[in-house]
Amino acid sequence: MVYWILIICAAIALVWYVREKIKAYSLKAVLIKSVVSVLFIAVGVCGLHASTTNAGGNPIGVLVVMGLVCGLLGDIWLDLKYVFPEQDLLFTYAGFAVFGIGHVLYIAGMLMRFYPPGGIAYVLAPIVLAIVMSVVNAALEKPMKLDYGRMKPVVIVYGVLLFATMLLSGSLALSHGWQEPALNLLFAGGILFAVSDLVLSGTYFGTGHERPIDFVLNYFTYYPAQFLIATALMFV
Predict the structure, then answer these.
(1) Whole-prediction pTM
(2) In the prediction, which pLDDT does 51 show?
(3) CA distances for 215 relative to 11, 21, 201, angstroms
(4) Is 190 helix (H, G, I), strand (E, B) or coil?
C-alpha cells in the first residue's frame, strides 16, 4: 500500500515538474524535481523493509539506496546548471560524477548479491561491450551533431558505467535464467536509464534538442528507470 502511495505521489510530482521545466528553468522546478527524487529513494527504502532479508545485512540494498541518493544529488546539480548558467561546467561535472558513482554502487551491489560462481564470462563480456559502446558513442559525436568539447573524456567514462549497469544486469539475469525478479527489474531500469541519457546528451551537447518533447522523453524514461531500480529492492 505504501509503495503505491509513493508511486502515485511521484507521478503527480513528475507531471508538475515537467510542466514547470517546459515553462522556464527555475529554482521552483529544481525543488519539485528534488521531491520526485526523494520519492524514488523512499521507494527503495520501502523495498528494503518489504524484502525478507534484514536491511542491515543486505549489501545490495544498502548500495542501491546509496546509488539512488547519488541520483538525487545528480538531479539537483544538473538542473542548477540552468538556474546558474555562469557555473554551468562546474554543475555538469558534479552531476556526471555523482551519477557515475551511483552506477558503480549499482554494479557493486549486483556483483555482491548475484555473481554466479565460475561465471566470470557473465561479468567480463558486458563490461567489454560497455567499453566498446561508449567509445563508439563518442566516435559518433559529429554524425549525431553533438559537441562534447572538454567533457568528452568524462562522457566516455560515464558511458562505460551507464552501459555496464544495463548490460551487466541483463547478463546476470541471463545467468540466473531470468528467474530473479530483482535482476529483471534492474535490467529494465538500466535500459530506460540508457535511453534517457542518450536523449539528454542531445540536450546538453547538441542544438535544437530542447523542445518540450525532448524533456518529456528524457524524464519519462529516467524516472521510471529509477523507480524500477528502487522496486528491485523488494526482491533481494
Answers:
(1) 0.90
(2) 64
(3) 15, 8, 12
(4) helix
Q: Whole-angstrom Cα distance, residue 36 to residue 158? A: 23
Closest-CA residue to 137 (of 125, 152, 123, 151): 152
For 134-179, the pLDDT digits (tens) are 999 999 998 888 989 899 999 999 999 999 999 999 999 999 999 9
How far from the centroid of its chain's Cα atoms is residue 71's Cα? 7
Q: What is the DSSP string of 41-100?
A: HHHHHHHHHHSSS-GGG-HHHHHHHHHHHHHHHHHHHHHHHHHSGGGHHHHHHHHHHHHH
What is residue 140's three-state secondary structure? coil
> Distance between CA 2 and CA 127 in Å, rounded?
36
Residues 6+ apart with CB under 8 A from 233: 44, 47, 48, 50, 51, 60, 61, 64, 65, 182
